[in-house]
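Q: I'm building a small set of examples for a reading group on sequence design. Run inverse folding on the following structure and report the sequence directly after it, with nothing in between.
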């Protein structure tokens, strides 16, 4: 099993508690209950570099994150207002330093709070919705329809040809950064079909032998990144500049230099918390080939 960013939470989600309003109320009133400290949706850290928590105060609705050694942990649903997909520069830097378990806890809270921001009204009738089940669902006050947090599947893939990997970059990224190609799974597609379509659309390359490698929740605002490796027979590139600024083939040596942070590296790799980094590190050490054996 390959570990990826935003996984490894140290909280027990305690699903049964979400269905018990009395139990949730008791947990919220527990003097030992902890509340995640957020600033405009970004996590705050203590002197120890871990996520900052504070006692639960009268903040209205709470998002129940789970239990740890019997201690309830919450996030303030008030923080949902204005929490979306945007990431501040400070958050980018902080994510590189968060302990894996803390990043997973924050990622869960961030994804759910972002969902609440976007689902204050019912998609069925337009009525106002309110949180239920400890913040893991919303119910329309008009028609009674219940809405649940959604996760959108995204494929992200290492495409290999003759010992080289295909990377691309988007104009919004930091200068010189290249990463694995990625795209949303469309209705009526399998993961394998989505990989083949996205690579062909973005880079003009046809692939085969698509194999699953690992996955990662991505809380900006709420995707599941499905990592794969695929083979190409023809390396000819036809880049769709509406999707990518550039695409290149890189050798294992070039990628290894980038991952090491060598000053003369050809490009900058994706950050450590992104599954793209995990996939490329695995490819450098031949893990994709072993996974498909």
């Amino acid at each position: 099993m390959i570990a990826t960013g935003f996984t490894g939470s140290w909280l027990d989600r305690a699903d049964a508690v979400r269905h018990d309003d009395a139990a949730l109320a008791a947990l919220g009133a527990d003097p030992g209950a902890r509340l995640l400290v957020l600033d405009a949706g970004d996590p705050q850290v203590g002197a120890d570099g871990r996520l900052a928590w504070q006692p639960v105060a009268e903040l209205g609705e709470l998002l129940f994150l789970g239990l740890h050694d019997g201690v309830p942990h919450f996030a303030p649903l008030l923080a949902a207002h204005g929490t979306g997909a945007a990431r501040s520069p400070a958050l980018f830097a902080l994510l590189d330093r968060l302990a894996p378990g803390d990043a997973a806890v924050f990622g869960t809270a961030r994804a759910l709070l972002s969902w609440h921001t976007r689902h204050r009204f019912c998609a069925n009738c337009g009525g106002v919705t309110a949180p239920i089940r400890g913040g893991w669902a919303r119910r329309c006050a008009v028609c009674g329809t219940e809405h649940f947090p959604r996760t959108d599947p995204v494929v992200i893939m290492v495409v290999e040809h003759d010992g080289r990997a295909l990377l691309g970059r988007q104009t919004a990224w930091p200068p010189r950064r290249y990463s694995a190609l990625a795209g949303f799974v469309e209705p009526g597609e399998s993961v394998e079909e989505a990989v083949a379509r996205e690579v062909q659309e973005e880079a003009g390359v046809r692939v085969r032998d698509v194999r699953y490698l690992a996955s990662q929740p991505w809380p900006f605002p709420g995707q599941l990144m499905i990592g794969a490796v695929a083979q190409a027979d023809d390396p000819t590139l036809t880049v769709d500049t509406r999707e990518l600024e550039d695409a290149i083939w890189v050798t294992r040596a070039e990628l290894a230099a980038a991952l090491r942070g060598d000053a003369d590296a050809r490009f900058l790799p994706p950050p450590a918390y992104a599954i793209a980094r995990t996939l490329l590190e695995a490819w450098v050490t031949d893990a994709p080939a072993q996974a498909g054996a």
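The radius of gyration is 21 Å.
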